[in-house]
Amino acid sequence: MGIFDFIVVPFYLLLFAFIFSKIRNTYKDPILKKYHNQGFWIKVIACVAFTIFNAYVSPGDSTGLYHDEGVNIHNLILHDFRNIDLLFSEGKNFDENLLRNPANAGYFKSPSNFLISKMVAFCCFFTFSKYMVINLIFALIAFSGSWKLFLFFYEQHPKLHKKFAIAILYLPTFVFWSAGILKDSICVAAVGWITYGLYEIFYRKTGLIKNSIIVLVFSYLLIVLNVYILISYVPFFILFIILKNIQHVNNIALKDLVAPELIVGSRRAFNKEKS
Questions:
Q1: Distance between CA atoms of 109 and 123, rounded to whole angstroms?
Q2: How far does the chain reach from its first CA to its final CA, in angstroms?
Q3: pLDDT tens digit string along 87-137?
Q4: Does the model's pTM come out above 0.85?
């Protein structure tokens, strides 16, 4: 990472601040405006800290694998546009003779590693391949998902907004480790957007096509990156949606019959999964 990173970042930051301010202005609730603004800038600060930590203090996969090889894929495409198919291929088919660092041989056999590097390569076309700028993009993608998660919990229990903000928008480890080029950033975004999409589809019953695409895209990302998150999270969230809808059933007898059966059934399924 060079001095040019620090020169170009303010321009991208102004752009993203403008975009997120437009999003913020769509909220009429002053509480939401406050937390959205604070969450955005906390994420930006975390991104700067993450960049310095990984670039100068403790280099790891973020710099040595995902960014370096992502930039390499980007350069291969610029050299020969036919290499654009690298963005749509599988890591196991990647010619390791093309690696920027031979020490990274074998890492692309993991689809999750290759996916993050491909995402970096795509970002390179709009960021001069600069590490801090791409970190900022990943960080704000994660923030978008965190914000959707906060909105979901805030709607369920508005009076607990401070506690939700601390747990989702302020918690240092959660914010820091999703503030740059890591799998965690995309996983955090995926959980938030899947929660939003499923809630809109099955409870609010709005935007079927748009939200179905959101759920499918982010479910695919979780399947590639950390499928266990999808397996452990989505079934129980769907159970929540079912119970939420049962609240609107006027027949008390039917409500009392169905809800316990769902809870017992889900517990049996959970115990079976553990065994």
A1: 22
A2: 48
A3: 999 999 999 999 999 999 999 999 999 999 999 999 999 999 999 999 999
A4: yes
